[in-house]
Amino acid sequence: MKYKRILLKLSGEALMGAKDFGIDHSRLYKYAQDIKEIQEVGIEVAIVIGGGNIFRGVQDVNGAIDRVQGDYMGMLATVINSMALQSALEGAGVKTRLLSAIKMEQIAEPFIKRRAVRHLEKGRVVIFGAGTGNPYFTTDTAAALRAVEINAEVILKGTRVDGIYTADPEKDPNAEKFDSVTFKEVMAKGLDVMDMTAFTLCHENDLPIIVFDMNEPGNLRKVVVGEEIGTIVEG
């Protein structure tokens, strides 16, 4: 295996499947099976998942919801998704722990770095909920922060496209895919990988990012064994 400890970043929208909102249970089951497959061969797996399928904290609902309040609502949405993924994983026989940046003792442990690392060392899949626990920070930033804190070797950003392109491949048929790109090239070309706070955190800590198609069966395993899947950002 190329990687021993990874952080998998999933978008909330990825859980919608063909739905317009909410959670597609078949998609949830598929993700659980993919994660189980790499966990069973000894990969230490941490996960951060967004909440955009339920609520986007940055949206302005006719000015009715304060930005900070909206961001906290978005954090709670990530906890709902984290609980759903936790249930799917445990249903597949995978031991998990859900750690939250916001205290909610009845459903999640508080995030403590040493506790998170210990869970990973014991072979448990660790899911980080509630983002960073602070407004104005995205789940991309939460993923970068947690990855650095637990000394993950790479962030695997699972999306519905198979890498980083010169433009949105779903809108521009002439968009060209990168197999690899440096942090400086991403910034110079204005490529869409992560928000700038998250991206800068990865750059400063020499933490590579791999963007790949999570919806293609077997891709997650291919990435962790070192196959050239998706686009890698490093250097």
Within CATH, the superfamily carries the name: Acetylglutamate kinase-like
Strand-and-helix sequence, N→C? EHEHEEHEHEEEEHHEHE
* Domains, number: 1
How many strand segments? 11
| CATH level-3 fold name | Carbamate kinase
CATH class: Alpha Beta
Low-confidence stretches: none
Strand content: 15-25%
Instruction: For the record, give the distance between the C-alpha atoms at the N and C termini, rounded to a whole number.
Output: 21 Å
Look at the structure and give the mean pLDDT: 94
Tally of separate helices? 7
What is shown here, in short?
By secondary structure, the protein is α/β, with parallel strands linked by helices. It has helices at 25-39, 67-91, 113-121, 139-149, 183-189, 196-204, 219-224; strands at 5-10, 44-49, 96-100, 109-110, 125-129, 154-159, 164-165, 177-178, 180-181, 209-213, 231-233.
What this model shows, in words?
The protein is an alpha/beta fold and 235 residues long. The chain has one domain (5-233): 3-Layer(aba) Sandwich (Carbamate kinase), CATH 3.40.1160.10. The protein has seven helices and eleven strands. The strands form two sheets. It has a nine-stranded mixed β-sheet with strand order 4-3-5-2-1-6-10-11-9, with helices on both faces. Strands 7-8 form a two-stranded antiparallel ribbon. Helix 1 (25-39) crosses helix 2 (67-91) and helix 4 runs parallel beside helix 6 (196-204). The longest helix has 25 residues, at 67-91. The chain is globular and about 50 Å long. The mean pLDDT is 94.
